[in-house]
From TrEMBL:
Belongs to the MINDY deubiquitinase family. FAM188 subfamily. The keyword Hydrolase does not apply. This is ubiquitinyl hydrolase 1. Hydrolase that can remove 'Lys-48'-linked conjugated ubiquitin from proteins. Residues 1-10 have a biased composition (Acidic residues). GO terms for biological process: protein K48-linked deubiquitination; proteolysis. Keywords: Ubl conjugation pathway. InterPro entries: EF-hand-dom_pair (IPR011992), MINDY-3/4_CD (IPR025257), MINY3/4 (IPR039785), UIM_dom (IPR003903). It holds the Pfam family MINDY-3_4_CD. Coiled coil: none annotated. Residues 23-34, 46-64, 83-95 have a biased composition (Basic and acidic residues). The gene is LOC100815405.
Length: 612
């Protein structure tokens, strides 16, 4: 109502300044003071001129105060009336419309939000985990590009943000060096860095890291808001309050302001939470940067999760889910659910990781990932046959993946996008698997009908000998594992994958794994000769990955001995690298990597990479 009153005052002032006859009283009021005071021409009445000046001054002051609350940086005072008054007002209104003033949630909205996130029986321990995790970079030079995790619960939020931060740091580094790009380009702008990606993260400046973080947060929120809006959740600590303190940093002001703050109920949240909606990406980035001390504070991870949920819309979030009665933060340990991770990665709070949606019959279906994503997802649970990650998440636009284990989320990434390029053999595998999955109506059970099987053969141009075809169809359904074994033994000329030439080649590339939880690091120079306690810090591990040209390691190892002996006299250094088997090391992360690159062999120096 306050905004409407301000507009009416300004409109009245404009009419009074331009009208030559008696002004018409406002219809919404029984009596109008201006109309009562006017009985003749406005130019002839001093009271009319005085009232006009008062209205214009009051309207200008109110708009200046509103603009000051919206923008943390000083801006020139808007002129209340320009020449051609309505066009001037339209310019002012367009600036203000892109950012709504921060407001409180209603009690009903706060109850719905709190219940969705934590449920009705959340423990104080889980609430403490989510109220004590900021979004802050590591102070260690080697892992300076990484966000540090202190509490166990919010790792899903931090890992998703981390994946986007790495996208900007690795592939958009030139953009981060240009301060003006923050306002000129919105989140996810089509800008490709021309510099060669580097793993020298210690050279990153604080400004570059901040810009990467702000752009990442903005891109995620606009994705949640269907690229139409971003809702930013903050606390009732305004920029003006922060600026009153001289000689003390914003971080310290926010930290002191949060002392004693405890979130134990929806009412606690409603009292301190403030939200504002941005429809302009530029303004969203400016607001995120202005409120960065709050997101870096101990409430940061929770505030960002709330921002993402409100950007999507609470009702839409519930419609995304298969079971909206369950809390998004899972009991008993307070971990981020897959729905939270999917919301941050793809903008929808769906609970599954397969492509599209699965029809269960009877008008029932379960929802997965609806399209291609910027950064992806891999999980240890797939290697244990608990789920199947679809190609949308396995093959994202950029070679960066959030990695899920039973209790933690970390990040895997490469510096070279070509690690995702398929060779002939991998392309054939993808084609066959997609055709088979399209006919699989078992809910991921890995078998199809005979009719579906013949459709797969037609789509993939596979020609089985009659006896093999009869054997596969004899039971009335076809199991993927049996079908795949026959494909491996079927010659390439018939549509299979058996290639006696060995020309499909071996892939060798580097991956990096980041775990934000501070752990004892024994790698390289961190080993202490005096036996002192190892350095506690987030861990960054470089892995050398090689994918053999054969489908089974046993077949590859057997062929290496034969081919090496036959061509030893003409072998080159490069040939040796391709034919020589790598010593294999194992960790649970390797199982995750093999869900993306089957048969991958991984090696590293120092401690094995940890996904817990």
């Amino acid at each position: 109502m306050g905004d409407r009153g301000e507009d009416e005052d300004l409109q009245m002032a404009i009419r009074m300044s331009m009208q030559r006859g008696t002004p018409e009283p406002k219809r919404s009021k029984p009596r109008d003071a201006v109309a009562d005071a006017v009985s003749g021409s406005p130019e002839e009445l001093p009271e009319y001129k005085t009232r006009r000046r008062e209205l214009m001054a009051a309207a200008a002051e109110k708009r200046m105060a509103a603009a000051a609350r919206v923008s943390p940086s000083p801006s020139p005072s808007p002129s209340p009336v320009k020449k051609g008054g309505e066009s001037g007002r339209r310019e002012e209104d367009s600036c203000l419309k892109s950012v709504n003033l921060s407001k409180e949630l209603s009690v009903e909205e706060a109850n719905q939000l709190f219940g969705m996130v934590f449920g009705n029986e959340v423990s104080k321990g889980i609430l403490a985990q989510w109220s004590n995790q900021g979004i802050r970079f590591s102070s260690d030079p080697v892992t300076s590009m990484g966000l540090v995790q202190h509490e166990g619960g919010p790792c899903g939020v931090l890992a998703a943000i981390q994946a986007f931060v790495l996208k900007y740091i690795i592939f958009f580094s030139d953009e981060l060096k240009d301060v003006s790009c923050m306002s000129q380009k919105g989140p996810g702008a089509a800008f490709k860095s021309q510099s060669v990606p580097s793993n020298n993260f210690s050279s990153l400046t604080e400004g570059e890291k901040v810009r990467a973080l702000v752009k990442s947060m903005g891109e995620i929120l606009f994705s949640c808001g269907s690229n139409r809006r971003a809702v930013i959740a903050t606390l009732s600590i305004s920029e003006n309050d922060i600026q009153r303190f001289e000689g003390i940093s914003k971080d310290e002001v926010v930290s002191k302001s949060l002392q004693g703050l405890s979130i134990e109920s929806a009412l606690d949240l409603q009292k301190v939470l403030r939200v504002e909606t941005c429809t302009s990406q530029t303004n969203a980035l400016q607001r995120l940067e202005a409120n960065l001390p709050l997101f870096q504070s101990r409430m940061g991870a929770l505030l960002f999760l709330i921002s993402a949920l409100l950007s999507r819309g609470l009702d839409l979030v519930q419609s995304d889910r298969d079971d909206p009665s369950l809390p998004l933060v899972t009991a008993p340990f307070g971990h981020a659910s897959q729905e939270i991770v999917n919301l941050l990665l793809c903008g929808e709070a769906v609970p599954n990781v397969f492509d599209g949606r699965m029809d269960l019959g009877g008008g029932m279906f379960v929802k997965g990932i609806s399209g291609y994503v910027e950064v992806g997802f891999l999980t240890l649970l797939e290697s244990l046959n608990f789920c199947k990650v679809g190609q949308f998440l396995k093959s994202p636009k950029w070679p960066i993946w959030v990695v899920g284990s039973e209790s933690h989320y970390t990040v895997l990434f490469a510096l070279d996008p070509s690690v995702q390029n398929e060779n002939e053999l991998e392309g054939k595998e993808t084609l066959i698997r997609r055709a088979f999955d399209a006919q699989d109506q078992s809910g991921g059970g890995g078998f199809i009908s005979v009719e579906g099987f013949h459709q797969v053969l037609r789509e993939t141009n596979i020609k089985f000998p009659p006896e093999k075809l009869e054997h596969l169809c004899s039971s009335g359904f076809i199991v993927w594992s049996e079908f795949w074994q026959v494909i491996l033994d079927l010659d390439k000329s018939l549509g299979g994958l058996k290639d006696s030439s060995g020309l499909m080649g071996k892939k060798v590339f580097d991956l990096y794994h980041f775990n934000g939880i501070a752990k004892s690091d024994l790698n390289g120079s961190q080993v202490n000769s005096r036996g002192e306690t190892p350095l506690q810090r987030p861990r960054l591990t470089k892995l050398r990955v090689s994918v053999p040209p054969r489908w089974t390691p046993e077949e590859f190892m057997a062929d290496v001995k034969v081919s090496s002996a036959a061509s030893a006299s003409e072998s080159t250094g490069k040939d040796d690298e391709v034919s020589k088997p790598e010593p294999s090391q194992h960790a649970p992360l390797v199982d995750c990597i093999r869900t993306r690159w089957a048969r991958a062999v991984c090696t590293w120096s120092g401690d094995p990479p940890s996904i817990v």
